[in-house]
Structure formats: C-alpha cells, structure tokens
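Is this the right way to post structure tokens for a design question? Let me know if I should format differently. Anyway, here goes:
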C-alpha cells in the first residue's frame, strides 16, 4: 500500500468524520477493483474474460474475442497515448465485442454459468466493507463498463449473498428476447474510460446520493477518477488498485489517487478508513 500525501489524507479523514456518515457515499468500479486481478495465480481481468476463455458460446467466439483483446487491451494500458486516442479505441472495442456476443448467441444462461464458475473472486475484506456500508445505510454506486452488463454484477453479488438494497449498479445493459438470447445493447455503451456520475442524474436513486457530498472512490484505472465528473461533491478520498505494470504506472497513478493498493492487495485499508470516519 502507498499513501501519496499522508498529511492531506489525515485532513480529509478528519472532515469526513466531523460531517458524519450520512454525508458519505462510495463510488466504485467492479472488475479488478472489487474483484481480484488473479484467481489461483491466473489473471482474470474481468467477468467477460471468463466467458472469453471458456466454451460458452459458438465455437469461433473465444478466438475472435481474444483477437479483440490482444488488439485493444495494449492500447487501454498504454498511458503514453492521449486520453482521446484510448477512449476512441475502447469504444470501438466494446462496440465490436457486443456485436460479436450477440452474433455468438449470448444467452442469460451463459451469464449464470460464468458467475457459477468460481473463476471470479471478491477481494479479501470486501464482504466486511459491503456489510459495513449496508449496516450504516451508505450508498454504494458501482459504475462499470463490464462487458456482460449489470445483470452479471447483480448475479455475482447475489451469489455471494451481498446484493444489498444500498447497492446501485450502473453498467451496460442487454436487451433479451423471450428465449433469453441477447438481441441488442442499450445506449450509451459504458467502457473503462467514459464512466462518470453525470449519467446518474436521471436515475431513480440519485436523490439518495445528491446530498452526500463526501465521496470515497475506488478504481483500478487512470480513467476511474473521472467517475465523479459532473457530480457536485465537496470532499473526496480516491483509492486506486494498481494490479499490473506497477513500476511503469506508479507515477501516473500517484497523480490521480490519494492511496494505492498494490499487487492485488486486500481491502484492509478501506475497512480501517470506514471505521476511522465513523463518529464515536
């Protein structure tokens, strides 16, 4: 773990504690943030990667999906490129991949099989965090460019017994026919570099967070701090999970986050932070 500016962090924690938990909400990415990057020593970058690496869809799906990953993932993590270049590439990747999923006969049953595969794991300490947020009525907004959409996140949290009423999921959404086959993806397409809270203003739960202007943000990419763009917050503590290319990325991540959790670390710091800001 690395704290970027200890004195600044202490000041923020003091403000959060003084103003109380009813002024706090949490905004988080999902893949590689709430879940681990490695499962049994193997990289599992996302729920969609489990689908890609398994025999769930038509026989040609996995190969075509892997080609898209090989083409676009290096661009996603190439921080020498401009944000606009990377955003454009991410939009093309997701658009092409959704078309491929639909053509490959994605069905709701396939999503359920992926969730039940045990190849996606929550970070150690996540259950404690989710329980704390639920017990203290603190909203958790999950904003995810997940390739299998919000249904997969809901199914996963339900399987873990953690799909609480204070959790709100903003993600890609498929349209399914009566047989459960995916037939379309609803616009706008959300990917790793265009997530922000401006999309929340018209959603039903916005009233739950609009006056909670102290934010704890959790993310694993350089684009994730932008999840709060457009939200009128007052104070923010940004915690980043740096899972790969640590030496090459440490400086850039340090410019954007207050705290970094390195090498697929656990949630101990976040759970400690929540206890610190709880008024005695």
């Amino acid at each position: 773990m690395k704290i970027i500016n200890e004195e600044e962090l202490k000041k923020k924690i003091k403000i959060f504690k003084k103003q109380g938990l009813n002024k706090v909400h949490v905004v988080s990415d999902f893949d590689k943030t709430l879940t681990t990057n490695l499962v049994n020593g193997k990289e599992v970058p996302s729920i969609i990667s489990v689908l890609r690496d398994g025999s769930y869809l038509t026989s040609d799906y996995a190969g075509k999906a892997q080609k898209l990953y090989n083409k676009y993932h290096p661009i996603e993590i190439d921080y020498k490129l401009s944000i606009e270049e990377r955003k454009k590439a991410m939009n093309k990747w997701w658009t092409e991949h959704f078309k491929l999923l639909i053509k490959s006969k994605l069905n709701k049953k396939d999503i359920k099989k992926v969730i039940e595969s045990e190849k996606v794991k929550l970070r150690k300490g996540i259950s404690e965090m989710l329980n704390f947020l639920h017990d203290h009525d603190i909203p958790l907004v999950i904003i995810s460019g997940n390739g299998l959409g919000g249904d997969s996140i809901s199914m996963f949290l339900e399987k873990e017994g953690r799909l609480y009423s204070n959790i709100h999921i903003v993600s890609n959404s498929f349209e399914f026919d009566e047989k459960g086959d995916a037939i379309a993806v609803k616009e706008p397409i959300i990917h790793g570099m265009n997530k922000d809270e401006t999309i929340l203003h018209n959603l039903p739960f916005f009233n739950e967070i609009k006056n909670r202007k102290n934010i704890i943000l959790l993310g694993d990419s350089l684009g994730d701090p932008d999840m709060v763009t457009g939200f009128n917050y007052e104070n923010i503590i940004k915690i980043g999970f740096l899972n790969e290319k640590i030496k090459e990325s440490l400086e850039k991540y340090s410019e954007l986050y207050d705290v970094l959790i390195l090498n697929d670390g656990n949630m101990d710091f976040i759970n400690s932070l929540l206890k610190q800001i709880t008024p005695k």
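Format looks fine. Someone answered above. Worth noting: The chain has one domain: 2-43+120-276. Residues 2-43+120-276 form a domain with the Rossmann fold fold (CATH 3.40.50.1000).
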